[in-house]
């Protein structure tokens, strides 16, 4: 923990001393992801000040403005994010933008950094450097998991993690959006609105019949759905869904794809998945990660025909 | 004290100047030795000693040494004095002057010549005066040392004479220091005292500091005073330096004890995740094995006593390892994946083992002796280094290195690491995981047993032995970082040194409390210990 | 549970009878009959204090067995009731209550540490029973229900210091474990030494925790203190477990008894059994009894002990002798009172005399302490002590030290004053000791 | 009452039994003649009172261990601190009845030559102040310790070991005579509480009843907490701490709440314990004592309301019986019991019964071909994960 703080201080220091480094976003070394955002204005007017520090300040102001422009309408904005574990770069200068209301599929071979990316977005892991913004201007690197979850980013894990000692209903009840104070929970009363909400979610996730079952006794697919139900209960702006159909039957996979499309009507969703059939069934824009950075992006057909992608998937 | 100085003086003068000439005319020493016989008061004994010292006959040294060591006896029937050596229920007796054997006598017929500390001191002084002129440089050295601490102005002249005829440089230096200490308290001129202060400043130990301080307070002469004060500052700096060194040394030594106690736990707890509350009892079993080995050697092969620890080491490893093996097979293996439950079960085992040892060996302390190479100390500057502490440090490091080698270089170590990292995968690769578990636990327990051999040299061997180390061991492993042997090493040494640097200021109790609080605070900063396992699979 | 106790006792009794019939020493005089008189034994058999207390339990079993052979008490047999308070102080109180209320014992022999005594004290007062306490302690106490057969500070510490002063000691290290016995003893000694003209800078007092095992720094401090040119001695009130590492460290740092002698008040034959005494020869201990004392009574006692325990290597020590004296005094008092009723026995006890094992006759005093000889012994290489000094007369135990300002004015007398803490200045009994008994 | 449905009949039976004991035991002790068959001898009342205090302590540990998964090896510290706060009040009540007759200073301060009462002893002559401290001191320690430890995400064995370090440090500190808490001897020789003589049978009976009532309240309190949404959250934290974070909860505050409440409960147990056993000394801080509490809870069944209570009563009753019946062998029995329980009854006595009952029920349901196979009682959940 202290490491990351030190790291952060060091980064800030570096940002101070070399403003035209990673502080200027899409002009950085990984422009691939930043197509939709224009920033020609910054490049257009070189600024020379008689005083070096004034130059620094000016550059930083411009950089900030550029960022603000770039981020304004995004829901999730990752820029130049890097994270390494013991020298291994799990995420390497990753830049990724999700628009509001978008549903995005992320594919990539094992070790491409998908899970680490999720960890960074949800606050479990702090990046070594780079920016992570939510809803335009919330810097996610400054918040912990609980705060990020409360802001409206929900996450479903690769391995379904539900509260096995609780019933399906209680799992959802604990996840319902609402105050998160401890003493509030102590004096909490179940009310009509809460029951209705739970009812809706149970129906959406096809778990109504199992509402009193302990989560431990659910089948694998049901646990996946329960976890998605818990996500819905949080009513998040953005859902991060990690391999939702791993280990599912074809029928279940179909059903899950339908469920996700349904959800995507009211939420932004990022799905990480291996299963190409499933991704095709989703029918959304696809980003392919490789070795911690974006390899290709576009429709599934475009991505799957990209020679770089073909090389990564087939070439080894 | 004063009286003994006077004998010493007398003896010294005698030996140096008169003895060679008049020795033949003096009273027969053998007859004087016989005066030790019969019931007598300590004062009587002391008088006989001084009488013997006055003979100046080096032959009486045998009887005096026997007296000091409590080996001098007199026969009840005729009050004749002999040197006695116990042999079963009898004494073998020897002539006090010649050392010739004089047969065996039942114990009941002999009475010991009673001694106490003041008698032993008198004997030492007498022996000193008798042997100052002796050929042995070591004995002359000892005499000079004695004179140094006595610091008697009347000794200046005899010392001058001795210095003049001394050939051994080392002894000569000691004699000069002795002379300087005497000069300081004499009424010699100030310049001479200033010179003496310089000599003492070069000696630079606590005794010379005391003398100089006393002198600086007493003298009126500005020159001598200044010299003394300069010397005092120099000595104080020297002492302060060596005090720090001493603290480091003590810290390392305490650290090595902690390391020994914790290193087995670093395996059973650190590597296997078993919260082994019976770890201390494994250490205890090792210590008791040492006891049994020594008892066996004492009765059957006394000559092997010096090697008893080396014999005990493998046995302790095997015995404690076997107990560990039984524990693992019978208990722990049912509890993998439930670390907190191993705490309860092993706590139960620790109670049972403690009571078992209490039942078998009795509740009181057992005697484990130190072989000669583990006894005594030597001086390094102003710091005294105990042989047993030194060997324990060396031993702890050797055990650490060996364990590291086992883990990193042997097939067993490879399999162990494989099993702890991914049990299922290891099993799929054909590793017999139950066997590896059993061996790992036995190894950890065996190492604890080995630690017990070393700890038996400095601590009680009692059923409570393990209890004293268990908490500290867990602190060390957790502080260092679970699952990392290097963490255990650094953790143990750090805690040892911090503790020893705190002790002089805070006292033993507060020092320990502070260390505990520091550990608690440290864990806040690094919740996984000093050498935390890193990587993205470690759950935050 | 009851049957389990009887079973235990039967086994114990059978074992002892076998032991004695083998030794063939006794022809039974009269066979005791009738309802047995129960004697409670309250010594820790597990936990940290088991190391010292287990022996006392065995000693008591032996004494009771002996007495039964001699015809019991009042013609009735004695029956020991053994419990294990497990070195757990509140458990001492619980077990004491159980012994008195449930087992209805006539008397209890037990406790070692001060805290265990303090813990059971209210129980004995409340239930009005008798406790014999066999261990040297800090004094500052005299209770109607307790008889102190161990040494008070004036029966151990002060004569020891006197002896060392006679040997030319001028500088003093008072080294102790941090609990009430060393604290009080050192306080008394400090005052005593200052009264004798020892300068404040020639005394250091130092405390270490229980079970302290790393003595390096402490011992080197002593060494440094002792290198000042004056003859230095250590007065050790170090408790139990910490002693072995302390002595081992002394030996290793080369401190010989001839340089800096250590006189200990808590180190006896039992403690030395765990140490190689070769390097310790000449260090001292002050007690009221040593196994090496050469008297017929002592020889007899040691012989019986070895026969009873079935091991010739087991040593005897001072608290065992205290139990020997205490037990025999109780027997005499019961015979004198003609009943085991605690109130009558308590009244009968002061004035009872009993030959001790060192050749004198100890007497129970009105303050519930006894008269004892004080012996100073030097450790020899056989793990025994050679007596080097002995007080001329028996020293009466003083409940309230004259060297503590607060207790100087206090006096204990349960015969005339009926008070354990009588203020001789205000001429009244302090606290509620009196009040409680009078209503 | 709402709680009735909430807690289930078994808990109410337990509460009823405890409250019945609170009334009947004192009655049987005071009102019945000594030769009556149902008479409870006076010596048993404080003994049972002690068990009840231990039961409360075990329950407090269960709240953090059984429900939140924090294995505290330092709960004895809170117990002892509560005990010391009460002991200080009792010491002040002695007044001039001490052996030196000093009206203000306790005896141990007099013979250590203290001239005046240290500041932290002020106020303890008032019962209300002592009661406040009984709650405040352990509560504050638990809060501060918990705040830092949980904020830093110290978990699992690391947390267990530092709780042990905490109680060990306190043990050493309270051993020091310079601390002004009586050193190794602690506080003892109490005379009266609220004006009642502490050794009187009626006072003892009153204390016993008070302990029972405290235990009953604690059972209800823990029942209420664990059956509330917060209780479900606690179990969620116990089973999957990081998951709770990703749905927006801050598990550190959940833990802190449980730890603080638990510390206060332990403190109250200690305060009730001291007047009944008549002594408080640093031995109560010994790490081994804290481990024993864990054992009681484990034997009875953690994660249940009844388990720790039954475990504490059973183990301590066994200790009382065997230390007298088999003084040389009782440690074998105690040690054997721990091994047996962990091997054969990993859920503890109550947990095992529950589990068996649950399994039985699900078999029956399976026979009925019912799709819903779950049980109703939240206690019968699958065994707590570590």
UniProtKB/TrEMBL annotation, chain B:
The cellular location(s) given in this protein's UniProt record come to:
Cell membrane
InterPro entries, sorted: ABC_transp_permease, ABC_UrtB_bac, BCAA_transport_permease
Q: Which UniProt keywords apply?
A: Amino-acid transport, Cell membrane, Membrane, Signal, Transmembrane, Transmembrane helix, Transport
Q: How does it sit in the membrane?
A: Multi-pass membrane protein
Q: Which CDD domains match?
A: TM_PBP1_LivH_like
GO cellular component, alphabetical, reads: plasma membrane
**One GO MF term attached to the UniProt entry:** transmembrane transporter activity
> Transmembrane residues, as ranges?
248-275, 307-327, 390-407, 474-498, 504-523
Report the leader peptide range. Answer: 1-23
Q: Name one GO biological process term.
A: amino acid transport
Its predominant location is membrane
Any Pfam family hit: BPD_transp_2
Q: Which domain of life is it from?
A: Bacteria
The UniProt family comment states: Belongs to the binding-protein-dependent transport system permease family. LivHM subfamily.
Question: What PANTHER family does its record include?
Answer: ABC TRANSPORTER PERMEASE PROTEIN, BRANCHED-CHAIN AMINO ACID TRANSPORT SYSTEM PERMEASE PROTEIN LIVH
Name of the protein in its database record? Urea ABC transporter permease subunit UrtB
TrEMBL record, chain D:
User: Its membrane topology, per UniProt?
Assistant: Multi-pass membrane protein
Q: Which residues cross the membrane?
A: 12-32, 64-86, 127-150, 157-175, 205-225, 253-274, 294-317, 329-350
Q: Name the domain of life this protein comes from.
A: Bacteria
- Location of this chain's protein in the cell: Cell membrane
- Name where it mostly resides: membrane
- Annotated region described as Disordered, given as residue ranges: 366-386
Q: Does the keyword Acyltransferase apply?
A: no
Xref: CDD domains: TM_PBP1_LivM_like (cd06581)
A matching Pfam family: BPD_transp_2
Alphabetically list the UniProt keywords: Cell membrane, Membrane, Transmembrane, Transmembrane helix
* Record carries keyword Signal: no
Which molecular function terms from Gene Ontology are attached? branched-chain amino acid transmembrane transporter activity
Q: Which GO terms describe its cellular component?
A: plasma membrane
Would you tell me the protein name for this molecule? Urea ABC transporter permease subunit UrtC
Query: What species does this protein belong to?
Result: Jiella endophytica
């Amino acid at each position: 923990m202290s490491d990351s703080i030190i790291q952060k201080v060091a980064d800030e220091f570096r940002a101070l001393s070399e403003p035209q480094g990673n502080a200027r976003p899409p002009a950085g070394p990984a422009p691939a992801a930043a197509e939709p955002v224009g920033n020609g204005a910054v490049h257009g007017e070189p600024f020379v000040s008689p005083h070096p520090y004034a130059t620094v300040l000016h550059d930083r102001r411009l950089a900030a403005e550029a960022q603000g422009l770039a981020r304004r309408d995004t829901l999730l904005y990752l820029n130049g994010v890097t994270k390494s574990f013991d020298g291994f770069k799990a995420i390497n200068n990753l830049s990724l933008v999700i628009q509001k209301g978008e549903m995005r599929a992320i594919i990539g071979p094992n070790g491409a950094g998908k899970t680490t990316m999720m960890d960074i977005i949800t606050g479990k892991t702090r990046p070594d450097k780079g920016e992570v913004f939510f809803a335009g201007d919330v810097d996610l690197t400054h918040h912990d998991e609980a705060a990020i979850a409360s802001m409206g980013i929900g996450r479903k894990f690769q391995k379904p993690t539900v509260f096995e000692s609780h019933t399906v209903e209680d799992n959802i009840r604990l996840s319902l959006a609402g105050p998160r104070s401890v003493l509030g929970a102590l004096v909490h009363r179940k009310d009509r609105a809460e029951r209705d909400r739970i009812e809706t979610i149970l129906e959406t996730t096809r778990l109504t019949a199992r509402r009193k079952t302990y989560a431990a006794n659910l089948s694998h697919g049901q646990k996946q759905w329960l976890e998605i139900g818990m996500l819905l209960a949080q009513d998040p702006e953005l859902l991060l869904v990690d391999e939702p159909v791993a280990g599912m039957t074809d029928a279940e996979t179909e059903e899950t794809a339908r469920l996700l499309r349904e959800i995507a009507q009211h939420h932004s969703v990022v799905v990480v998945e291996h299963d190409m059939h499933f991704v095709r069934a989703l029918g959304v824009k696809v980003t392919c990660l490789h070795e911690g950075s974006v390899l290709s992006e576009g429709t599934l057909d475009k991505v799957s025909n990209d020679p770089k992608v073909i090389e990564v998937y087939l070439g080894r | 004290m004063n009286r003994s100085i006077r004998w010493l003086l007398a003896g010294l003068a005698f030996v140096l100047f008169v003895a060679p000439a008049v020795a033949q005319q003096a009273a027969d020493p053998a007859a004087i030795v016989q005066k030790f016989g019969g019931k007598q008061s300590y004062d009587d004994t002391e008088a006989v000693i001084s009488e013997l010292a006055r003979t100046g006959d080096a032959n009486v040294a045998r009887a005096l040494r026997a007296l000091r060591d409590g080996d001098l006896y007199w026969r009840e029937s005729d009050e004749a004095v002999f040197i006695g050596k116990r042999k079963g229920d009898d004494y073998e007796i020897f002539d006090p002057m010649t050392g010739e054997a004089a047969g065996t006598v039942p114990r009941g017929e002999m009475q010991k010549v009673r001694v106490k500390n003041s008698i032993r001191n008198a004997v030492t002084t007498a022996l000193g005066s008798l042997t100052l002129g002796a050929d042995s440089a070591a004995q002359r050295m000892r005499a000079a040392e004695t004179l140094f601490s006595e610091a008697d102005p009347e000794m200046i002249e005899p010392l001058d004479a001795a210095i003049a005829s001394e050939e051994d440089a080392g002894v000569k230096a000691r004699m000069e220091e002795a002379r300087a200490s005497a000069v300081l308290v004499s009424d010699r001129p100030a310049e001479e005292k200033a010179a003496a202060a310089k000599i003492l400043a070069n000696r630079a130990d606590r005794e010379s500091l005391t003398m100089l301080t006393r002198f600086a307070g007493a003298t009126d002469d500005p020159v001598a005073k200044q010299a003394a004060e300069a010397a005092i500052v120099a000595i104080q700096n020297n002492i302060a330096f060596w005090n720090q060194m001493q603290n480091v040394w003590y810290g390392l030594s305490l650290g090595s004890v902690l390391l020994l106690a914790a290193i087995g736990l670093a395996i059973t707890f650190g590597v296997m995740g078993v919260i082994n509350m019976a770890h201390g009892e494994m250490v205890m079993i090792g210590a008791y094995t040492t006891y049994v080995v020594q008892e066996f050697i004492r009765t059957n092969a006394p000559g092997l006593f010096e090697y008893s620890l080396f014999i005990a080491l493998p046995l302790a490893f095997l015995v404690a390892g076997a107990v560990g093996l039984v524990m693992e097979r019978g208990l722990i293996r049912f509890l993998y994946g439930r670390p907190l439950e191993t705490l309860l079960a092993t706590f139960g085992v620790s109670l049972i083992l403690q009571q078992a040892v209490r039942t078998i060996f009795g509740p009181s302390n057992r005697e484990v002796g130190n072989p000669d190479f583990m006894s005594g100390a030597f001086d390094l500057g102003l710091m005294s280094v105990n042989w047993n502490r030194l060997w324990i440090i060396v031993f702890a490091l050797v055990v650490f290195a060996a364990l590291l080698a086992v883990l990193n270089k042997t097939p067993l170590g490879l399999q162990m690491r494989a099993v702890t990292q991914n049990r299922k995968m290891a099993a799929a690769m054909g590793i017999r995981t139950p066997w590896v578990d059993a061996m790992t636990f036995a190894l950890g327990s065996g190492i604890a047993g080995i630690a017990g051999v070393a700890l038996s040299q400095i601590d009680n061997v009692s059923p409570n032995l393990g209890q004293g180390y268990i908490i500290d061991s867990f602190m060390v492993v957790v502080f260092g970082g679970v699952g990392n042997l290097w963490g255990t090493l650094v953790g143990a040494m750090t805690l040892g040194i911090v503790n020893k640097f705190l002790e002089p200021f805070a006292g033993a109790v507060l020092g320990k409390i502070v260390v505990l609080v520091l550990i608690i605070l440290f864990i806040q900063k690094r919740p996984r210990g000093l050498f935390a396992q890193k990587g993205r699979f470690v759950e935050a | 549970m009851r049957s389990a106790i009887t079973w235990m006792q039967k086994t114990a009794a059978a074992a002892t009878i076998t032991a004695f019939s083998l030794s063939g020493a006794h022809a039974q005089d009269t066979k005791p009959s009738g309802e047995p008189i129960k004697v409670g034994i309250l010594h820790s058999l597990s936990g940290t204090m088991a190391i010292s207390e287990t022996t006392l339990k065995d000693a008591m079993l032996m004494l009771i067995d002996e007495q039964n052979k001699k015809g019991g008490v009042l013609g009735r047999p004695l029956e020991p009731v053994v419990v294990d308070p497990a070195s757990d102080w509140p458990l001492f109180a619980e077990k004491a209550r159980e012994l008195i209320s449930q087992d209805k014992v006539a008397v209890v022999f037990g406790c070692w540490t001060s805290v265990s005594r303090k813990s059971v004290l209210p129980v004995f007062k409340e239930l009005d029973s008798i406790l014999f306490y066999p261990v040297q302690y800090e004094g500052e106490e005299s209770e109607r229900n307790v008889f102190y057969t161990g040494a008070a500070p004036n029966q151990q510490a002060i004569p020891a210091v006197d002896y060392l002063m006679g040997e030319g000691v001028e500088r003093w290290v008072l080294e102790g474990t941090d609990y009430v016995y060393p604290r009080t003893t050192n306080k008394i000694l400090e005052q005593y030494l200052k009264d004798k003209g020892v300068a404040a800078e020639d005394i250091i007092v130092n405390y270490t925790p229980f079970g302290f095992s790393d003595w390096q720094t402490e011992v080197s401090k002593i060494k440094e203190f002792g290198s000042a040119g004056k003859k230095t001695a250590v007065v050790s009130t170090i408790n139990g477990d910490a002693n072995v590492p302390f002595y081992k460290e002394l030996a290793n740092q080369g401190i010989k008894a001839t340089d800096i002698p250590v006189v200990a008040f808590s180190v006896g034959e039992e403690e030395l059994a765990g140490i190689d005494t070769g390097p310790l020869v000449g260090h001292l201990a002050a007690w009221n009894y040593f196994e090496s004392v050469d008297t017929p009574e002592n020889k007899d006692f040691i012989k019986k002990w070895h026969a009873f325990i079935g091991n010739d290597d087991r040593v005897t020590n001072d608290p065992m002798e205290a139990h020997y004296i205490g037990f025999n005094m109780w027997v005499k008092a019961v015979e004198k009172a003609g009943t085991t009723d605690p109130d009558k026995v308590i009244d009968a006890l002061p004035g009872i005399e009993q030959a001790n094992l060192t050749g004198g006759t100890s007497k129970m005093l009105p303050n519930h302490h006894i008269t004892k000889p004080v012996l100073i012994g030097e450790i020899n290489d056989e793990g025994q002590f050679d007596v080097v000094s002995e007080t001329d007369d028996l020293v009466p135990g003083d409940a309230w030290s004259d060297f503590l300002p607060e207790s100087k004015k206090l006096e204990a007398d349960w015969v005339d004053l009926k008070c354990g803490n009588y203020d001789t200045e205000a001429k009244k009994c302090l606290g509620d000791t009196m009040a409680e008994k009078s209503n | 009452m709402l709680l009735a449905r909430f807690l289930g009949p078994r808990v109410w039976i337990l509460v009823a039994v405890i409250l019945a004991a609170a009334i009947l035991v004192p009655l049987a002790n005071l009102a019945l003649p000594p030769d009556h068959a149902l008479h409870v001898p006076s010596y048993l009342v404080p003994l049972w009172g002690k068990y009840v205090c231990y039961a409360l302590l075990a329950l407090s540990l269960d709240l953090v261990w059984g429900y939140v998964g924090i294995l505290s090896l330092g709960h004895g510290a809170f117990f002892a601190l509560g005990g010391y706060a009460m002991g200080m009040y009792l010491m002040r009540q002695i007044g001039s009845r001490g052996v030196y007759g000093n009206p203000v200073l306790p005896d141990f301060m007099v013979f250590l030559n203290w001239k005046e009462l240290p500041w932290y002893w002020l106020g303890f002559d008032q019962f209300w102040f002592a009661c406040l401290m009984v709650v405040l001191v352990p509560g504050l320690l638990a809060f501060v310790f918990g705040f830092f430890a949980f904020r830093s995400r110290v978990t699992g064995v690391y947390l267990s070991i530092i709780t042990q370090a905490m109680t060990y440090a306190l043990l050493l500190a309270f051993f020091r005579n310079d601390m002004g808490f009586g050193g190794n001897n602690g506080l003892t020789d109490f005379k009266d509480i609220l004006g009642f003589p502490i050794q009187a049978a009626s006072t003892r009976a009153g204390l016993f009843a008070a302990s029972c009532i405290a235990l009953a309240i604690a059972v209800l309190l823990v029942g209420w907490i664990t059956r509330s949404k917060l209780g479900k959250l606690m179990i969620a934290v116990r089973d999957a701490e990081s998951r709770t974070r990703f749905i927006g909860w801050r598990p550190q505050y959940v833990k802190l709440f449980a730890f603080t409440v638990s510390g206060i409960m332990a403190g109250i147990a200690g305060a009730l314990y001291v007047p009944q056993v008549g002594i408080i000394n640093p031995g109560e801080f010994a790490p081994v004592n804290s481990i024993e509490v864990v054992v009681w809870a484990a034997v009875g069944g953690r994660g249940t309301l009844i388990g720790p209570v039954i475990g504490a009563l059973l183990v301590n009753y066994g200790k009382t019986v065997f230390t007298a019946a088999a003084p040389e062998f009782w440690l074998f029995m105690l040690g054997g019991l721990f091994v047996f329980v962990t091997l054969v009854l990993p859920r503890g006595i109550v947990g095992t019964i529950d589990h068996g009952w649950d399994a039985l029920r699900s078999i029956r349901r399976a026979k009925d071909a019912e799709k819903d196979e779950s049980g109703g009682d939240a206690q019968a959940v699958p065994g707590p994960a570590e």
